[in-house]
Amino acid sequence: MHLGRCLPWHSLHARSRTKGLSHSQVRTEEHPRGGCVRIAVIGSGMAATTAVATLAADGETRLEVYVFDEYGLGSSIAFPSGSNPGVCNTSDAANATCLGLLADTSYRDGAEVFRERRDIGEFLAGSAARLRSHPDIQLHEHLGLAARISQASSGTAVTTVDGVTYDGFARVILARGLSTPHVPQSFSHVLQHTQVWKSPYPLSQCLSELRDRRVLLVGSNLSAIESAIELANVGAAVSLASRHGSPLPSVRKTLPNDLELYSDCIRALEHAQPATPAAMSQFVRSFTADVASPFDIGSGTYRTGVDAYRAELEYAESSKHHWARAIVPICRAINTQPDLAAIGRAAVESRSLRRYTNAITSVTAQRLIGHLAAGRIRHENLRAINVRSSRSGTFDMHCAGGTRRFDAVVLACGWESPRALSGLELFRPVARAEDGWGLGPEVIMLGAEARSRIAVPNALFALADQIDSIRPIFQAASQASGPIPPRPALSGARRAAGRITAP
Fold first, then answer.
1. CA–CA separation, 335 vs 269, rounded Å?
2. Engineered SS bond to 8: which of 154, 334, 488, 498, CB 3.0-4.6 Å?
3. What are phi and psi of 269, to 5 degrees?
4. How many CB atoms within 10 Å of residue 210?
5. What is the pTM of this model?
6. What secondary structure does DSSP assign to 192-260, as a single string?
7. 352-371, pLDDT tens digit by residue?
8. 306-328 pLDDT, tens per residue?
9. Where are the beta strands (DSSP E) in 325-448?
């Protein structure tokens, strides 16, 4: 079977330049083949950039790193370096270790410091720029999306969607992150409409085009809250809707990274060994109660939903033993148990816990309450949507108070897991230390790619813990003396004259 064109070693720089790279983006110095280790990184965002930075810090050998993505290293949807507003939902205290891996020295260990996401994005882009000028790293970027990985006689090979195959890799790191918006099947009948947005991002474009419009924003997560607030700021009338009356996220002022609670939770989890998502949810609730930081704040009676939300904000602002102090330790503890990944993820994403694990900051809550009280944002149940063709409105939704009409529908329903990569089933995934050092070819999986072994993979503190766990494997990759020894080809393909062809 033809696997696509495999370029000779000496022609890779020329190929990179034909993909639109400037001289400043690709260093043209050639390292001797025998003195450099070849690494493939599939992805270009936070996890990918952190992986390359870790390899650079730990290695004693020159690295030749190939970044398989349409974008250059340091590109991120979650942390854009442009003008998108919004704050990171995790604090400096929780993020410090991960950002430290990127060699940042400006981040304080502050449990009440929630930085702008664009500020983190600018730092991420700066870290990528420093890696491009690193004396012991030769970066090849903008190689295109990876479609397949396979074994070749000189090591692991990666084939792009354009059919170009690069081989001889000593390590492959899979770190694509979340980039494809999740679109519920129930919206398939309106997706072709020009005023239906599959995602609010890039948010700057959404704000520009929907200023002063009537907007139905679907979702109840952080992205939906952030988008609703910013749309209301530019004059849009926003209905924030979700199915089954999903409650708004809870509120937290602080997010500590309490190491003592982390150790306590690990011991309690090892003793409890919950076997179902329901049992895991109960364990989480019991643990927060045992450490005097329960989720529920009492059964008060409030005149409106806004009043109830104000009560949560007041509790977050005043409580010394708020439930938020246990969230990061709980998530980190669950992540240490690979066999509990599936039930742990189901528990933290369940209806009973999700509003706490995805809580918004007190500053964001204050802004949201202001818009809710003024009627610029409505929170309501999502119902059937009908497309209109008359001038009076584009979409209809029947609500408790009558029919509401909207000019646009914006979906903020989360993100899809990375798509399947052809050939991955023939490799052994390494996501934790327990997965390493076995027989056969392996692929290091970071961030969202590691969902099968990590319950809460898509957080900066989770990425830091994961890299710390598999750091010896990273060190082995960056300190190797050259390409890995040849292995028997899995498919019977052979490499000849710089090309992979079928026998």
1. 11
2. 498
3. -70, -40
4. 24
5. 0.82
6. TSTTEES---SHHHHHHHSTT-EEEEE--SHHHHHHHHHHHHTT-EEEEEEGGGPPPP-EES-----HH
7. 898 899 899 999 999 999 99
8. 888 898 899 999 888 899 999 99
9. 360-361, 377-381, 385-387, 395-399, 402-406, 408-411, 428-430, 442-445
